[in-house]
Amino acid sequence: MATAREAEVNEQGKIEGIDIDRVSAWMAERTPLTLPLSFKLIAGGRSNMTFTVTDAAGRRFVLRRPPLGKLLPSAHDMAREHRLMSALADTAVPVPRMLGLCQDPAVNERDFYVMHFLDGVVVRDIEVGRTLTPQARKLMCHSLIETLCTLHRVDVDAIGLGNLAKREGYVERQLKRWSGQWEQSRTRDLPLFDTVRDALAARMPPQSPATIAHGDYRLSNCMMDPAGPVVGVLDWELCTLGEPMADLGGLLGYWFDPSDPGQGGDPATTGLPGFLTQDEMAGLYADSMGVSLASVDYYRAFAQWRLASIGEGVYARYLGGQQGSQDEPIDLEAYKASIPRRVERAARLLGLKTSA
Prior knowledge:
Blueprint: H1 4-8, E1 14-15, E2 18-19, H2 20-28, E3 38-41, E4 49-54, E5 60-65, H3 78-87, E6 98-102, H4 105-108, E7 112-116, H5 126-130, H6 134-152, H7 170-185, H8 191-202, E8 211-213, E9 222-224, E10 230-233, E11 240-242, H9 244-253, H10 278-289, H11 296-319, H12 332-349
Antiparallel strand pairs: 1-2, 3-4, 4-5, 5-7, 6-7, 8-11, 9-10
């Protein structure tokens, strides 16, 4: 009987996204591991491809690379992710320890980086959430907010990230970027998307002092200790310098709240007993950072609009076969339907009329 690894390998010694021999040799030069290595695509990733790498002695690592096929300009920058986590390694922000970055196309065609494996749990669906106690769920909420506040307090100049991006004009840059991404990847007409974008541009609040903005901070992008604390913040693909309230809005954009049934189509994980409400999460952040929540609905709307653009890109890549073969494929029709719901949610948060 073929092993799981053998079943994944084709006759050229590759699996989707990995040249096994060349990547194994590259890794062997950088750490005392035991060959052969096995690679497995982690299900659940919707943008970059993430693999667990296990050596013959059972030691584990994680490899990240861009999706297969044609990529949108400026997207999927592996060097940027690697730089960010390397810079944060000596701060209080929990991040995985980097092993190395490869930018030689002769190794694996596309850039990739490898990091050490973190033990913990990724709460990416309600089934995982149900394995946690209500007390652990509550502690996770507090730890998520504490970790976000810790990130937003980092002195970017002190850790060498002061030139990562412009510090001003965050929302303007984001509106331009995600409007462009929408046009390049959209699969349907959705006029409300442009209506929301125009409203966001017209109602833009003054920017807060710039901080590191993770860009996709949420429960399922953190490795969690089952008892509650954040073990590591993951998926830094969208990180930049800019508006900290946008990170809070993004976290709330993914946060299912039973008291708010009009939100987008996210799993109901955070509706389980013990998880805090969106308002309680926002209150924790405001208390810790000493900021006003007057603009929080604007940034919640901005998050939903941006997530719609990101989601359309992911949907288009799945249609094009660029995400690889995953053990847990998504329901494409349900995923497609969630995108206009996000745009409608953004419109409602801004007080705009919708067809719904």
